[in-house]
Specification:
By secondary structure, the chain is mainly alpha-helical. It contains 8 helices and 2 strands. Helix 1 runs antiparallel to helix 2, helix 1 runs antiparallel to helix 5 and helix 2 packs antiparallel against helix 4. The termini are far apart.
Length: 220
């Protein structure tokens, strides 16, 4: 039973239990998409039903990860199926567990406000935004923001971080950003700002129906 109810996997060559970062990122992407879409229902239709389901599933999923085992988490199982053809990238389980405990706390707060109290406020908006940022950074960049707080509470050194960011090392040439690249980035930002200033009135015009399809349907 202990072999099934544990946090992380024992992998040869690794001193501590680890998890597969690739399936973690896939799961984060799934949860980010589900949460984002449910927020769109609120913004455009004032429909809070999808977010209540998502919060419930989110809390249950993270509680399974933390209190039972990540191997039984539905989102991680689905993530594993999606990336099963990719070589695993092992990261330390302790810092992931800490990050997911933060996820449990945030999801529990959202569950309390949205399901038990059945109310929304700036507090729920901020919590939801924080969750989206955490999920987006994990899925898009492979950066576990929750893991960044691990050293503040635990003295043991963080091991096996995604991209080996825990290890002090020199950047390779392909990782360095030159002055010309920074200049190109700032020039593009200036281009965006200039476009907003010059084209805002034009972009604000509502597009017309090129083929008159809606008019034809309304005439029926």
């Amino acid at each position: 039973m202990k072999e099934w109810i544990k946090f992380g996997e024992e992998v040869k060559g690794y001193a501590i239990p680890v998890v597969n970062e690739r399936e973690v990122r896939a799961a984060a992407g799934i949860l980010f998409l589900a949460t984002f879409l449910s927020l769109m229902f609120i913004l455009f239709n004032q429909n809070f039903v999808p977010i209540k389901y998502i919060i419930t599933f989110f809390l249950a999923d993270f509680m399974i990860r933390v209190f039972i085992s990540p191997r039984f988490s539905p989102s991680l199982i689905l993530g594993r199926l999606i990336v099963r053809g990719q070589t695993p990238e092992y990261v330390g389980a302790p810092q992931k567990k800490f990050a997911w405990i933060i996820g449990v706390v945030l999801a529990a707060l959202m569950f309390y406000f949205f399901i038990i109290v059945n109310a929304y406020s700036p507090i729920t908006g901020i919590i939801c935004l924080v969750c989206l940022i955490f999920l987006f950074f994990e899925s898009a960049f492979g950066i576990c923001l929750g893991c960044k707080f691990y050293p503040l509470f635990f003295k043991d050194k963080v091991q096996y971080c995604p991209g080996e960011v825990c290890d002090v090392k020199d950047k390779q040439d392909i990782q360095r950003t030159s002055g010309v690249q920074f200049l190109a980035l700032f020039a593009f930002i200036a281009f965006i700002l200039l476009t907003v200033f010059v084209m805002n009135d034009r972009f604000s015009e509502k597009p017309y129906d090129l083929f008159g399809i809606n008019k034809a349907e309304q005439a029926k």
